[in-house]
Amino acid sequence: MTVNAWLLRPAAKPLLFVLLLLPLAWLVWGAVAGTLGANPAEALIRSTGDWTLRLLCLTLLVTPLRSFTGWHALARLRRMIGLYTFFYGVLHFLCFAWLDQGFDVAAILRDIAKRPFILVGSLALLLMLPLAATSFNRAIKALGAARWQALHRLVYASALLGVLHFFWMRSGKNDYAEVAVYAAVIAVLLGWRLQRWWRGRQTSPRGRSAPTR
Ligand code: HEM
Questions:
Q1: Is pTM beyond 0.90 here?
Q2: 119 within a domain of the structure (yes/no)
Q3: Is the Cβ atom of 179 under 6 angstroms away from ligand 1?
Q4: Per the domain annotation, does 197 fall within a domain?
C-alpha cells in the first residue's frame, strides 16, 4: 500500500488525533504521578511551549513534504495539526495564567508588559487566533480561497514570533542550543516557500503568483 493510500484511509485522522493528544496525556500523567521534577508548574509551562513550537514546525512542514515526496494526501491532515498547534498554545498560556499568575488578570497584564518575551509570545498566539477561527469549511467558503490563503500566511509571522519569544527567554540564560535548532528549521521551511514564490513570479506571465501555505 502506498503512503498516499494509507493517508487516505479513514483511520488516518483518528490516529493522528490520538497521537497529538499523547504529549498532553503524558503531562497530565506526570502531574498526577508527581514525576515532573522539583518545579512542576515550570515543567508544564515549558513543555506546552515546546509542543506549540514543535507543532508549528510540523504544520509548516506539510507543504514542502508533499512537494518533495508526492504524498499529497498529507493535505487532509494539515488542518488538524494546525488546530492542535493552537490548542497547545492556549494550554501554554493557561498554564502560565494559572500556575504562574493564579488567574489574576492584572498580574498577567503586568507581567506581559514587564517581560518583553511574554509580550512576543502573546502576539504569536494572537496571530493564531484568526487562523484557528477560519479553519472550518464554511469560513473558507465565506472568505474565498485567495483571501483565506492570504490570511493564513499569518502562520509565518506567528512562527517567527514564537522563535523570537523562545530566543528572548533563553537569552537570559545564555543558552541558545535548542533555539538554534528551531530557528534553523523555521528558516529552512520559510526559505523554501520564499524561493518557490520567487520562482513562481519569474515564470508566471503576470508575475503575481503567491506563496502557498
Ligand atoms: C505561539 C505562541 C507561543 C509559543 C510557540 C511559545 C513557545 C515557548 C517555548 C518554546 C518556551 C520555552 C520552553 C523551554 O524552555 O523548553 C516558552 C516558555 C514560556 N512561555 Fe511561551 N510560547 C508562546 C506563547 C506564550 C504566551 C501567550 C505566554 C504568556 C502570555 C507565554 C509565556 C511563557 C512563559 C512564562 C514561559 C516560561 C519562562 C520560564 O520558565 O522562565 N508563551 N514558550
A1: yes
A2: yes
A3: no
A4: yes
